[in-house]
Amino acid sequence: MTTPKKLFIKTYGCQMNVYDSERMAEALGGKGYVPTDRPEEADMILLNTCHIREKAAEKVYSELGRFKGLKAERPDLKIGVAGCVAQAEGEEIMRRQPLVDLVVGPQSYHRLPELEERARTGEKALDTDFPEEDKFDVLKDRPKAQRGPTAFLTVQEGCDKFCAFCVVPYTRGAEVSRPVDRVLAEARDLVDRGVREITLLGQNVNAYHGVGPDGGDWSLARLIWALNDVDGLERIRFTTSHPNDMTDDLIEAHGQCEKLMPYLHLPVQSGSDRILKRMNRSHTAESYLRLVERIRAARPDILMSGDFIVGFPEETEEDFQATLDLIEEVKYGYAYSFKYSPRPGTPAAERAQVPADVADERLQRLQALITRQQREAQEAMVGREVGVLFERPGRKPGQMVGKSDHLHAVHVEAEGIRPGDLARVRIVASGANSLAGEIIG
Ligand code: 5AD
Ligand code: SF4
């Protein structure tokens, strides 16, 4: 028997990259590769990169440089760059870094087996096409292993919104939705392999409009209702959403669909209408606030999460204050905040930039406010009963850790709880980044 080849993948960036890395491992699984978490024993190293913020390419170059010794020891080692940096700068990476044997963009990784073969013959293999064929579909017959209780499932990719700061429409391409029957088949397969919670992914997941089994155009809400009927699946989440695509049926689903969890990541980016307009967001602070009101009317305990960019070109102190005001009004349970970073090729990169020290100082103020809100949201859970899906043992003996319906990390000390168990838990205390609970009954 030949010993299997080993594959080390390092994943940067968003959850969609995590999903893609799993698919890449499956694609190479068909060529006899098994995953390893040790680069020094790998026959192939893949960096699945992210291009969304600053220094993305530099990070890739410095990471690649670290493999120089490994490659000198084992010339058979193949090194590849995948993901959005590969898409944006693949050819240049190959020119500048001779260690790289293979470059594959986010739309063509189903062709990895063929690229791997070319790389094995000593060729420099590059594929950054946007192919016609469905990369997800091509991968469907790969060998499959038992899974943990939670999984991602990409249902939509790309974006047509062209926010002035964002590279996604260029690296991931135009908005594409997967057909409903493919998504449902993949969901059932995940459930058969032990998954109980699925997070539907898309750069603009709520713009989903897949072809239904009836030939009609299905919305995300309709897809969620169909998933609600999948036996053995207990929880459904989705991310990331755009405010303009929060349709009435999706808001209603948050109130009525039993398996849809009370957590919504709905980025607003800024609270200043002037900046929102310059960002090409096509919503206002007020329309966002009214939307959040409607969502909370449908599901009062929903936990809101968001993304914020500070120091967008021309942002004044007054604009920034409007963002803080919006945050005060919404009261987020969780948020991600970023200092604006100019991305080559995007419209905002050409504009007058806010000085770095000003942006840093604003980011600190915003993060202090968000941290306070996060703590308050956690403290408000104390005394309440929630569902918890347990995922793994905690740090202390006898401890199990899982996620609540509202996506808080919860730990309990209890006998007989196993990963994949879903239990009712009373929250008894709130810590820095997690809640403590007790199993009910
Ligand atoms: N600079 C800073 N943050 C950005 N994001 C996207 N592009 C940029 C950029 N150029 C943030 C947005 C988005 C999240 C995924 O990343 O907040 O919602
Ligand atoms: Fe980027 Fe805007 Fe599209 Fe989100 S909606 S992926 S921020 S362009």
From TrEMBL:
Monomer. [4Fe-4S] cluster 2 binds at C159, C163, C166. It catalyses: N(6)-dimethylallyladenosine(37) in tRNA + (sulfur carrier)-SH + AH2 + S-adenosyl-L-methionine = 2-thio-N(6)-dimethylallyladenosine(37) in tRNA + (sulfur carrier)-H + 5'-deoxyadenosine + L-methionine + A + H(+); N(6)-dimethylallyladenosine(37) in tRNA + (sulfur carrier)-SH + AH2 + 2 S-adenosyl-L-methionine = 2-methylsulfanyl-N(6)-dimethylallyladenosine(37) in tRNA + (sulfur carrier)-H + 5'-deoxyadenosine + L-methionine + A + S-adenosyl-L-homocysteine + 2 H(+); 2-thio-N(6)-dimethylallyladenosine(37) in tRNA + S-adenosyl-L-methionine = 2-methylsulfanyl-N(6)-dimethylallyladenosine(37) in tRNA + S-adenosyl-L-homocysteine + H(+). Belongs to the methylthiotransferase family. MiaB subfamily. InterPro entries: Elp3/MiaA/NifB-like_rSAM, Methylthiotransferase, Methylthiotransferase_CS, Methylthiotransferase_N, Methylthiotransferase_N_sf, MiaB_methiolase, rSAM, rSAM_horseshoe. This is tRNA-2-methylthio-N(6)-dimethylallyladenosine synthase. Catalyzes the methylthiolation of N6-(dimethylallyl)adenosine (i(6)A), leading to the formation of 2-methylthio-N6-(dimethylallyl)adenosine (ms(2)i(6)A) at position 37 in tRNAs that read codons beginning with uridine. One of its GO terms (cellular component) is cytosol. Gene3D superfamilies: Methylthiotransferase, N-terminal domain, tm_1862 like domain. Residues 379-441 form the TRAM domain. It comes from Jhaorihella thermophila. HAMAP family: tRNA_metthiotr_MiaB. It holds the Pfam family TRAM.
